[in-house]
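Summary for the steering committee. The consortium agreed at its last meeting that each partner would contribute one worked example illustrating the joint modelling workflow. Our contribution is presented below. We chose a case with several input lines so that the handling of multiple components could be demonstrated. No manual editing was applied between input and output; the record is shown as generated.
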Amino acid sequence: MARRPQPLIFAGAAAASLVAALVAGSLVAVLSRAEGGALSPGDWAAVRFTLWQAVVSAALSVGLAVPVARALARRQFPGRGLLVTLLGAPFILPVIVAILGLLMVFGRAGWVNDAGAALGLPPLSIYGAHGVILAHVFFNLPLATRLILQGWQAIPAERFRLAASLGMARGDIARHIEWPMLRAVVPGAALVVFMICTTSFAVALTLGGGPRATTIELAIYQAFRFDFELGRAALLALLQLAVTAGFGALALWVAVPEAMGRGLDRVVRRWDLGPAWGDAVWIALASAFLLTPLLALLLRGLPAMIGLPGSVWVAAGHSIWVAAVSATTCTGTALAIAVAAARVRRGRSIELAGMLGLAASPLVLGTGLFIVTYPFARPDTLALPVTALVNTVMALPFALRALVPAVQRVEEEYAPLAASLGMGDAVWARRVLWPRLRRPLGFSAGLAAALSMGDLGVIALFADTESATLPLQLYRLMGAYRMDDAAGAAVLLLALSLAAFWICDRGGRVDADA
Amino acid sequence: MLTLEGLVIRQGEFVLRADLVVPAGAQVAVMGPSGAGKSTLLSVIGGFFDADEGRILWEGERIDTFAPGKRPVATIFQDNNLFPHMSAAENVALGIRPSGRLSRDERERVDEALVAVGLDGFEDRKPGSLSGGQQSRVAFARALLQERPLLLLDEPFAALGPAMRGEMQALVGDLARERGRTMLMVTHDPGDARRIGGETILVADGRAAAPMATDELLRDPPPALRDYLGS
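What follows is the complete predicted structure of the assembly.
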């Protein structure tokens, strides 16, 4: 049998152990500081609101995504490919940037209220529970649409051909072909959106707050920042953990669809299509809802970029540093884990250790790290490294999803050939693994870089004015009602995130042979 | 001389036994129904799968304890014989040294091997831009450079059309004979076995039989082979 030397396995096992130790250590720290005693009514309100808004956001996102996905699945039109690509963009779109865009459209002085005032309508407020839900739908409608679109495109074209030859009516096709698919795909898609919304922080921080619209994550932050009650923050972190882990366990039972799927660029030929205007309306509405905020932001922010204050550029420098560090560590860790997982007989446990970040939310990890480091170092001196670290752990599951199957494929296809040629580990890594994995490596690095570039989470716990990242600086500008500067900073952040993703992803594709 | 001594290969319910000798320099077809264990037998000899009992010897020396890369065996698989990100010359160079870093002399040997398989001028092409037949030629050129006396081919030409397959078999047979290699080639087609000439190992009913002259075997096939051939 192929008797391989083992260094690559050790590296992966060590990386997985480090991640597991980091997550477990944070949780133990949280546990040790959590103060017993009853939760206040406010804390229970946060739990209720977290679950309620997540249910509503998931229902709305998925409910609206079904007709949009159906329209995209069965209509071919110019710009369709671009639109489907854009639906993938919220993954790398910084939350705070999107929120500012939504404010420009739905906010007090936004386009919608301007139009309403002209018609003599009373002003709408975006702040509160409905604002939180609006932002969540903005973020998750595209994701849900892509997930459901994948379901539609997974239906073999032959089935529609068969239906046409049998003379099935539109209702029959819906009942026999499309309903069963939706029943299989929709619960998973809804659960994904629900889980994302239960760990919502930046949206609740900017649009929510107060007794009626505070999520658990936001409550953790407030216990820290305003009351400096570490014990209560830790207790809330435990609650958050229970929610995340509880529904995460549920996700193991429901088939959760893959968000990164490709091959969404074909349209199956169908014979049961009615007039196109219904689908056209859905596509137009969804595009308008998703693109108008970004357009509004660009219109306001681009001119403002010239006069941006120096603090914004300093913060941008910090963000680039954080993005570079977490892209490097995340990709390296994921690669080591993926290689070990492919080679060890029970490699699944190594892979699962790397996925542990899914069990903890960013603020839970941040709380734990704060408790552990607080006795030794001033939080603001650790703000940037901790942000990079937490983002590494958070992006790791995505990187593993891209890399584990890719490494497995390379091992399956080429390990026998390499063994018959007597290739050692070093040569294998340099001459086979690296060139074969450039695409998923570039994609993972790009994703990690973009995620951490735009992250507004842990940094808010640790940073002071000196050590802010760009998203935090942007939030502060918004808080000070310097909306022009904020819009300029948001355009800068958007550009940096997209550039970070593009550079890494592109680097993996250029000159790579399929 | 390749000796399979009391070999027993188990995979769940499946059992294959082999006790046979292949003389050095022989050209042997390995034939039998699909699922009989032809490919498994080759991967045990190549070192990709362990037998449960028995020994494998080359020229009297035990080789089944060696890693695949240390055995006197060059294998050409059904597919994935080439690294798609390397040029034809780079792929062939791996036969001399897995790191692919070559001296000037060795580079010349790579070029000679490519000429020998009829791929003069294709050095810089990557597998994606070569036809199936040309890819087989690259893999074979590399196997030639590996300088290993035993050459195992696991239906490497199955995906080629009949004319190209015949051509490749002729090329492989000629070059193997010329360079004194012992060759085992899996095939399910009696026509292929006849073209290879020489002898055939019949793999059927859980047993790999000792090589017999192919002509005789096909003229008077044993029951298992008759069932398979359907004649």
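Chain B has a mean pLDDT of 89. Chain B touches chain A through 28 residues (CB under 8 Å).
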